[in-house]
Amino acid sequence: MQATLLGILGLALLGTLHAQDSIPVQTDFQQDKFTGRWYSVGLASNSNWFKEKRHLMKMCTTIISTTAEGNLEVTSTYPKGDQCMTRNSLYIKTEQPGRFSYTSPRWGSKHNIHVVDTNYEEYALVATQISKGTGSSTMVLLYSRTKELSPERLEMFTQFSREQGLTDDEILILPQTDKCMADAA
Asked: What is the value of pTM for the model shown?
C-alpha cells in the first residue's frame, strides 16, 4: 500500500515537472529588450480568481525593469472600480534566460514564469504555472507595446492558451480602457 502511494506521488511529481518543462522559453532571450512599457492585451487562466473576476477585468499597463541583481521588477497599474491600483512583483531570474520565479507575499503561491515568445518591439507571450497548497493553475498573458495587436497575434495567444489546456471561456482579450493608462509612464 505504501509503495503504491509513493509510486502515485512520484508519478504526480513527474507530471508536474514535465508540465513545467513542456512550456517553451524564448530562444536567445534578451532581457534588456524585454524591459519597458507593455499593455496587457490578453489574459487566460483556469484559476478560481480569474473565473470570479473575469467580467471586471480591463487592459492594464505593465512596466518591466531590471534590478541591479538581474531580476525583473514588474509594476502593473490597472483599474479597479473607480480607482487605479498598482501591483509590484519581483521576478527572480533562474539559470535559464527567459524563465523566472516569483512567490506571492500575499497568497504564498509559487509562480514559474516563462517568456514563451517575443519580438520585443510588438508583443510578448508569457506563461505561468502557479502552485499553491490547494492545487495548481495556469496563466497566459499577452503583452503588447501598443493597445492593439493584429488578429494573427491574438489568434497565436488563443491557440497557445488552448495548447496549455485552457478552454475558450478561460481565455479573454481584455477590453481597452484609457483609465489608469497615463499613470504608468
From this structure: 0.85
